[in-house]
Amino acid sequence: STVVLVFQAPISQPSADKSTSAEFSFCIKKRDRVRMGEALGR
Amino acid sequence: NSSSQGNTLLLPGATVATIVMLGLLHARRLYDDQKIEDAREKGILEFQPDVKATFMRLLPLRSISRFWGTLTNVELPMWLRPSVYKGWARAFHSNLEEVALPLEEYASLREFFVRRLKEGTRPIDPDPCCLISPVDGTVLQFGELKEVGAMIEQVKGFSYSVSSLLGASSLLPMNVVDDNTNQDGGQEGSMDDTNQKSWWRVSLASPKVRDPAPARPMKGLFYCVIYLSPGDYHRIHSPADWNVLGRRHFSGRLFPMNERATRTIRNLYVENERVVLEGKWQEGFMAMAAVGATNIGSIELFIEPTLRTNRPWKKLLHPEPPEEQVYEPRGTGVLLKKGDELAAFNMG
């Protein structure tokens, strides 16, 4: 069984003020074992 | 004497031949496994359909799945339960120390399979800006979907589109592009006109109404594919605080979902039976697809206990379109908090 998560999140904006922009990034790698509750990205 | 001598000579000969043959098969298997491992490490695991994959399409996998479910639902005698569950845990690397109840209290393997865990064994990341894993498992793919008709790679050489996974009517990539376009003064009006009939498209297509702040960051569409092996904890939790606006149920095939299957079976994720939940979180659209497999064919939704999956398939040649359910109140749906339990994969 498999779970596929699809979601919108902020991306970098070339013209945006960098001090206020918050860009989503994953904190996992392929083949990582993850457990429920652990962060996938921030 | 001569006949006994003949037998003595014949038996070792046959035995040796069998051992050599098994040895060669084993060596071949080890060689193939090593090749796959090397390819995986290099990130070039390629799609290679084979005869076995073709043969799988001929098998009545849904019936096999339901039979497996019936078999594993048989109540086991109390004295036998610990041995069976310990055997299962040994075979599939489950951690029995995390199990919430004493093993004797799980009446069947099916019940043990969807076991809850002890309180505190899965702490939820407290960062309010993070998205947590909804399940225990192995990360197969993740990334950002950048183009219209966004595709998720099954393995190198074969991909499937997000819209075919979530539903043909979704038009998700187009909405995401328009969502971003709207930041620059795009065609918001025309999108609203065409999307009024869809409960979730409306939620995506009006970013200016939801958040008129000019400094609002642009939004991208991301995905993450997590595979659950048979020994894993099989309950699904909410990855963030979100409003689940609706659900689609695709009654499809039930191919296995292991690594070999992803390499050899075309359209695995979009042909298998699955339940898709769609809604909104603080950053916009969110959807989660729970894809079934032969051994784990049915998906139970705690937010909709009446949903039944893996039922006998009546129209083999013309599978029905996905069955949709809009959650009330319309536009708000069901509010789930990060870490809330929302579904489970059941055996069979």
Measured by DSSP, the beta-strand proportion of chain B falls in: 15-25%
Shape of chain A: elongated
- Assembly type: heterodimer
**Average pLDDT across residues of chain B?**
81
Q: Roughly what fraction of the amino acids of chain A lie in strands?
A: 25-35%
Which class do the helix and strand fractions of chain A yield? mainly beta
Overall number of strands of chain A: 3
Low-confidence stretches of chain A: none
- Count of individual helical segments of chain B: 12
Order of helices and strands of chain A: EEE
Strand/helix succession of chain B: HHHHHEEEEHHHHHEEEHHEEEEEE
What fraction, in percent, of the residue positions of chain B are helical? Answer: 25-40%
The largest sheet of chain A is:
none
Radius of gyration of chain B: 24 Å
Whole-angstrom Rg of chain A: 14 Å
The first-to-last residue Cα distance of chain A is 25 Å
In angstroms, what separates the terminal alpha carbons of chain B?
58 Å
Q: Helix content range of the residues of chain A, please?
A: under 10%
In brief, what are we looking at here?
The complex is a heterodimer of chains A (42) and B (348). Chain A has 42 residues and is mainly beta. Helix content of chain A is 0%, strand content 33%.
3D architecture notes:
The complex is a heterodimer of chains A (42) and B (348). With 42 residues, chain A is mostly beta strands. Helix content of chain A is 0%, strand content 33%. Chain A contains no helices and 3 strands. Chain A starts with a strand and ends with a strand. Chain B is built from 12 helices and 13 strands. Chain B has helices at 2-42, 51-56, 61-72, 81-92, 109-113, 162-166, 172-183, 188-195, 201-205, 207-210, 259-264, 268-271, and strands spanning 131-132, 137-145, 151-155, 158-161, 219-227, 235-237, 242-250, 274-281, 284-291, 298-301, 323-326, 334-336, 341-346. In chain B, a hairpin with a 2-residue loop joins strand 8 and strand 9 (284-291). The longest helix of chain B has 41 residues, at 2-42. Chain B is globular, with a radius of gyration of 24 Å. The chains are: A mainly beta (42), B alpha+beta (348). At the A-B interface, strand 1, strand 2 and strand 3 of A face strand 1, strand 2, helix 6, helix 7 and strand 5 of B. Strand 1 of chain A pairs antiparallel with strand 5 (219-227) of chain B, so a sheet runs across the interface.
